[in-house]
Amino acid sequence: MNAPAKLNELMPQTVEFTLDGRAVQAFEGESILKAAERHGVQIPRLCYMDGLRPDGNCRSCVVEIQGERTLAPSCCRSVTAGMEVRATSERALKSQRMVVEMLLSDMPETGYKWNDAAHADAESAPAPVGQHGELSEWATRLAVEVRPALQTLRRTQPAADVSHPAMAVNLDACIQCNRCVRACREEQVNDVIGYAMRGADSRIVFDLDDPMGDSTCVACGECVQACPTGALMPKTRIGSQQVDRQVDSVCPFCGVGCLITYNVKDEKIVSVDGRDGPANHGRLCVKGRFGFDYAHHPQRLTVPLIRKPGVPKDFGDAPRPGDWGGAFREATWEEALALAAGKLKDLRDTHGSKALAGFGSAKGSNEEAYLFQKLVRTGFGSNNVDHCTRLCHASSVAALLEGVGSGAVSNQVNDVEHADLIFVIGSNPTANHPVAATWMKNAAKRGAKIVLADPRVTDIGKHAWRTLQFKADTDVAMLNALIHTVIEEGLVDEAFVRERASNFEALRENVKGYSPEAMAPICGIPAETLREVARAFATAKGAMVLWGMGVSQHVHGTDNARCLIALVTVTGQIGKPGSGLHPLRGQNNVQGASDAGLIPMMFPNYQRVDDAAAHAWFENFWGVPLDATPGYTVVEIMHKALAPDSDPHKIRGMYIMGENPAMSDPDLNHARHALASLEHLVVQDIFMTETAWLADVVLPASAWPEKTGTVSNTDRMVQLGLRALNPPGEAKPDLWIIQQIARRMGPHAPHFVSSLPPEGAVRALGRPGGAEGLDWNYQGDESGVAAVYEEMRQAMHAAISGISWERLQRESSVTYPCLSEDDPGQPIVFVDDFPTADGRVKLVPADIIPADERPDAQYPFVLITGRQLEHWHTGSMTRRATVLDALEPMATASMNQGDLDALGLQAGDVVTLRSRRGEVAIHVRRDDGTPAGAVFVPFAYYEAAANLMTNAALDPFGKIPEFKYCAVQVLRGGTPVAAAGYGTGAVPTAAA
Q1: Which of 116, 113, 351, 384 is nearest to 229 (CA)?
Q2: CA atoms of 528 and 519, how far apart (whole Å)
Q3: Could you tell me what percent of the chain has a pLDDT over 90?
Q4: Which of 281, 731, 840, 869 has its CA 20 to 30 A from that of 748?
Q5: Does residue 627 have a pLDDT over 50?
Q6: pLDDT digit string, tens, across residues 432-443
């Protein structure tokens, strides 16, 4: 999982034994099966699978051991010195063949997992060998054929279970190897699949013998990846396993960064497999495994579109993603690009460089993010560039840069393997980062203590040692109480604080008034529980903090993160295995897009635009004069779009790539009004999103499987994804489109190059040219992606100089900081010092700041927003994925049973939620993890857009909106908005 922590892992000891008459060596503790495999002896195995605990129940791997009466299962028997093993003796082979024959005799005539994939590319492929996956494969290897007498005794075949939208259960092909049970219970720790009954009645069951579709299955698909025979299969892969090609990539959803392989047939992705990447080790979640077919949705944009003359931008209208003909007309690329860039250029030249802004995307590649921010800075002429990180972790990054000198995580998620205590706050990892949550659950099963601190008790609470269900908005009170306890009870790591921290006395003085006894009535956690958790955190060998947007999306989000930094510092829980600070990134490239400079106050690698040295470096590197003042952020840009004409910084034109602020911004009526008021809006996307509906020009772009590029995950891993498909119709790669816009924009000022480039600087590969355009010239395949990456690597040399494009092609994933080709990367940072001016953590005291808006008699409930497992961000991708839409087709508001009873409501009733800014009508569902007086609403549904109600009040430091707290009414009744037409309404069928 992570770096070896024990000496025997670094220097494994060997033992000598005899295998089929020859002396060989095995590693100490190694199984006979794995040792034999290393020495070229293939022993049959069916219940065994790399990565799963060996079970030894199928008995197909038995071998003879000298001096022992019975045959031994080689998968779960360790080699000992001097052991004599016969794996291919007559007796062993006879038993192996007998087991395989008996299992094969019970198989159905037609199987579900044909062994034909290996022959797909052969010119004259032989007939498929067997139809039962690994069982048929071993039968072929062992030359086993089922005797007719055994076939007559075939068991009664169980009925198929196709109740689940994604997976088919055909237990007539089940050999009861229990791999699915171990995958579900021990790897993913979902505890859905079990083994029930006895003897001839024994079988695999889901929950209490429920149909799979009615069970608590979360559709991670670990079971279908583990099943050897096809008894559990994705519905899209039943039967033939032949595909035209397999392409390695990275999951396009959350920030965990799981490595995947796309299986492509007839130019469509038919399934996704998990790869053994450092972040996931083969594991996936429902989105990663089954959320792939959005790329083939009929609503994909395939031609450039231009708004028809006289068609108003009514931001109150529901977009019609499949029926845009009334508002837009088709155009050629040349016409669309000329209009898109020409009007932006005119606005810049007429009103000045502050008149334009750009929103890039955390859903695209690093190269796209880098080139987009470079376009805004060198072509638009200002730093008015931002993306959705502003709405996620800006306050976390502000506190981290201030305190520890780096906005990235200190330790990778799976370092929880080495933690004694895992403190999860403001995050719902089982829904938002499901594979990351599996590492936490694995650690809990091994004895680590999980502390869940959250106003909502989410699924990770089932595995928690202590749950701190604090009152919403009281994070600082609770965290200061923990810090107070550590200091008051003498639990401070004195040496760490003395040698590696500054401003401790100010922190000590500040928390004197925050005793657990004083804070308990405020945060709602008993004082003794707060003290117990503080003691456990301080005395743990390793304690790690992981947090999400429940911490950051407040007006006091930066203060929340400051408290977390102080907590790990005073306890010395940073800079070592199983400790540290990890803000979990929400989207697949939030980390990378920020690293690449897609933020208004920072050049690439977090170099401030108003820092004279950094400013001079980039002016020389890009060869143009640059704005030295920070730009406006996402929310500020929306305000500036509605500013009076007299405002010299009024935003009049925008270029938005892959973002959907008409759904993701707070106070959506205001945000949509701002977008509709722009003189010129260019949107580059794959669907007619809510934002694209308000555009003047819409440019059809490439989905993630249609591009080659890198992304950087929450663990600081730069990872390479390869193009698996071509964009549909006339859609183009995003990287190509950005370059075309740049060539038509022209620089914002005369060409400028200093005579003396800064020491160590290398001239950018795509330099601006003359006054007619930014004459970028990125040569090479895939729109010059490798050349763009090389320029980005030079701009970020202090972080990724050792990660070349060639290295990524070899290794797929490299962790930064990485400063040389032979540097393996640093999964744990801050081991010796911090990248601050004095090398120390700067402790910043924080006091209680109330939310901008509090519940009152008129608006008595608190609205909490967030994501759900099956959908992601604004739903533009996941709601067009067949399986994901089938699992969660409708928006719901979660409330606990007590509040439902008090309002006379039942689950399924319709209510109207209303804030001071907007309202939605929505169905309610029961969720007793939601606290009394609160309502939880996911923000992925246009029909019930949670952000119509949220508050745009900003954290003064991170400038992040207060998404996680506003006051609402809950009124019985209402008329839900009709579905926006994003759903697929179909269930996948078997591939042809």
Answers
A1: 113
A2: 11
A3: 85
A4: 731
A5: yes
A6: 999 999 999 999
- Whether the pLDDT of residue 444 is over 60: the answer is yes
Q: Name the residue among 824, 796, 797, 801 with its Cα closest to residue 595.
A: 796
Half-sphere exposure of 585 toward its Cβ, with a 13 Å CA cutoff?
Answer: 32
What's the pLDDT at 119?
Answer: 54
Residue 127 to residue 174: CA distance in whole angstroms: 24
Report whether pLDDT(135) > 50. Answer: yes
Q: What distance in Å separates the CA atoms of residue 597 and residue 773, rounded to the nearest whole number?
A: 22
Going by C-alpha positions, the residue among 598, 857, 713, 633 that lies closest to residue 278 is 713
Distance CA 65, CA 347 (A): 83
385 dihedral zone (left: phi>0; alpha: psi -120 to 50; beta)? beta
- How far apart (Å, rounded) are the C-alpha atoms in residues 939 and 489? 43
d(CA 569, CA 738): 43
pLDDT digits (tens, 9 = 90+) for 894-950: 999 999 999 999 999 999 999 999 999 999 999 999 999 999 999 899 999 999 999
3-state secondary structure of 330: strand
- Per DSSP bridges, beta strands 421-425 and 449-453 are parallel
Q: Closest Cα to residue 626, out of 360, 358, 361, 353?
A: 353
Q: 545 - beta bridge partners?
A: 423, 581
Residue 820, number of CB atoms within 10 A of its CB: 9
Q: How far is CA 458 from CA 163, 349, 431, 522, in A?
A: 26, 52, 9, 22
> Residue 734: phi, psi to the nearest 5?
-55, -40
The answer to whether the CB of 936 falls within 8 A of the CB of 894 is yes
Contact criterion met (CB below 8 Å) for 254 and 587: yes
- Burial state string for 50-64 with b = 16 or more CB within 10 A and e = fewer than 16: eebebbbbbbbbbbb
Give the DSSP per-residue string, 393-441: THHHHHHHHHHTS-SS-SS-GGGGGG-SEEEEES--HHHHSHHHHHHHH
Which of 583, 585, 589, 584 has its CA nearest to residue 369? 589
Give the pLDDT mean for 652-667.
94
Report how far residue 64's alpha carbon sits from residue 72's, in angstroms, rounded to the nearest whole number.
Answer: 7
3-class DSSP string for 907-918: CCCEEEEECCCC
List, as one string, the DSSP characters of 419-432. -SEEEEES--HHHH
pLDDT band at residue 152, thresholds of 50, 70 and 90? confident
Q: What pLDDT is recorded for position 2?
A: 44
Query: 95 or 395: which carries more pLDDT confidence?
Result: 95
Separation of alpha carbons 246 and 724, rounded Å: 8
937 and 918 Cβ atoms separated by less than 8 Å: no
Mean of the per-residue pLDDT values of the chain? 92
Task: Classify each residue of 300-325 as buried b or exposed e, where b means 16 or more C-beta atoms within 10 Å of its C-beta.
Answer: bbebbbbbeeeeebebeeebebeebe
Using an 8 Å Cβ cutoff, are 824 and 487 in contact?
no
- 456 pLDDT exceeds 90? yes
φ, ψ at 156 (rounded to 5°): -65, 125
Q: Is 148 helix (H, G, I), strand (E, B) or coil?
A: helix
Provide the pLDDT for residue 322: 83
Question: What residue ranges in 620-762 does DSSP mark as E strands?
Answer: 653-657, 680-685, 697-700, 709-712, 717-721
Q: Is the pLDDT of residue 276 over 80?
A: yes
Contacts 24+ apart (CB under 8 A), 405-409: 405/834, 405/835, 405/836, 405/837, 406/606, 406/829, 406/830, 406/834, 406/835, 407/594, 407/606, 408/591, 408/595, 408/716, 408/829, 409/580, 409/581, 409/582, 409/583, 409/714, 409/715, 409/716
Burial per residue of 572-588, b for 16 or more beta-carbon CB atoms within 10 angstroms, e otherwise = bbbbbbbbbbbbbbbbb
pLDDT digits (tens, 9 = 90+) for 863-909: 999 999 999 888 999 999 999 999 999 999 999 999 999 999 999 99
pLDDT beyond 80 at 348: yes
Collapsing DSSP states into helix, strand and coil, what is residue 195? Answer: strand
